[in-house]
């Protein structure tokens, strides 16, 4: 299939074709004794993911585990649909996200407030998963991949309070979700992902540092794909966080409202990203993945919470 890419080590990247776009959101199949799907993509991507798994020889009874780095709909929106199609699969998520997979009503209501009518086209609807099939991870945990191979889970909030990174013991691959930002392979751009309501600079930087301490051989971004230059990429991730926070803090100190702050930060960061001067389609895709309005709003929310007396 043209949306499946072998990455070595029995790992396969699956382009989940979120909202019909290529190269936006990846799921990963670890095809071992106990096949494991990392990230499902959106609910509207579920048929695409199922077809990819079928092409790789994974039948309805074969998938052992589905694990998501966090419960945002571009990563976990398809969990309920995938769980229904693979009845033997255990569904693994951090404990702070588990209840929302069992009962997605609050999560979907919040998403509807953010995305409005675009929600259905971009993400679809997260179907509930039977609570008895969900395994909730604490700050660390392990997923058995068979043959002595395992994924270890490492709590990495900052982007979201229910976020984990996942390290493959056999390959050294680290599935970073959104905690290291959004990577665009065509241009090599890396941009932070700092949406409300959970963004916190200190914990975000701590998560990036933790990823470095784990000593991964390769970073597998959900947005999008593998990166082998691990130290430089994580250093850039931390730098991007600081740049966006510093600029948003400046806008807030100057009394700007959100719209003006977004315009200022977007203008001041434009030169950092080749994608924004590439084709219109590439620029639009980058903005959808890590939009300035969402990023600035998340940082503003954090500043309001941590430094309410300053600025506005």
From TrEMBL:
SMART domains: Lactamase_B (SM00849). Residues 24-223 form the Metallo-beta-lactamase domain. PANTHER family: METALLO BETA-LACTAMASE SUPERFAMILY LIPOPROTEIN, METALLO-BETA-LACTAMASE DOMAIN-CONTAINING. This is MBL fold metallo-hydrolase. It comes from Sphaerisporangium rufum.
């Amino acid at each position: 299939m043209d949306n499946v890419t072998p990455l070595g080590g029995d790992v396969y990247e699956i382009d989940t074709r979120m909202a019909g776009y290529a190269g936006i959101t990846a799921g990963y199949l670890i095809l071992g004794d106990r096949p494991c799907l990392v990230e499902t993509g959106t609910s509207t991507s579920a048929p695409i993911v199922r077809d990819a798994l079928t092409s790789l020889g994974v039948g309805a009874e074969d998938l052992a585990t589905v694990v998501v780095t966090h419960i945002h709909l571009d990563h976990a929106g398809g969990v309920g649909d995938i769980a229904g199609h693979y009845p033997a699969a255990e569904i693994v998520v951090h404990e702070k996200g588990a209840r929302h997979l069992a009962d997605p009503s609050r999560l979907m209501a919040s998403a509807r407030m953010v995305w409005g009518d675009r929600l259905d086209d971009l993400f679809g609807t997260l179907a509930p998963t039977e609570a008895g099939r969900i395994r909730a991870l604490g700050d660390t945990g392990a997923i058995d991949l068979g043959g002595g191979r395992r994924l270890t889970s490492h709590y990495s909030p900052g982007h979201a309070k229910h976020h984990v990174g996942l390290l493959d013991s056999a390959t050294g691959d680290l599935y970073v979700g959104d905690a290291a930002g959004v990577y665009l392979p065509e241009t090599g751009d890396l941009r932070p992902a700092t949406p409300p309501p959970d963004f916190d600079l200190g914990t975000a930087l701590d998560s990036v540092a933790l990823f470095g301490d784990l000593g991964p051989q390769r970073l597998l971004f959900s947005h999008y794909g593998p990166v082998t230059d691990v130290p430089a990429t994580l250093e850039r991730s931390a730098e991007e966080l600081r740049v966006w926070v510093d600029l948003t803090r400046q806008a807030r100190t100057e009394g700007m409202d959100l719209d003006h702050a977004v315009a200022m930060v977007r203008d001041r960061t434009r030169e950092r990203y080749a994608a924004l001067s590439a084709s219109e389609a590439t620029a639009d895709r980058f903005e959808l993945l890590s939009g300035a309005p969402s990023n600035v709003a998340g940082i503003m929310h954090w500043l309001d919470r941590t430094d309410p007396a300053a600025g506005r």
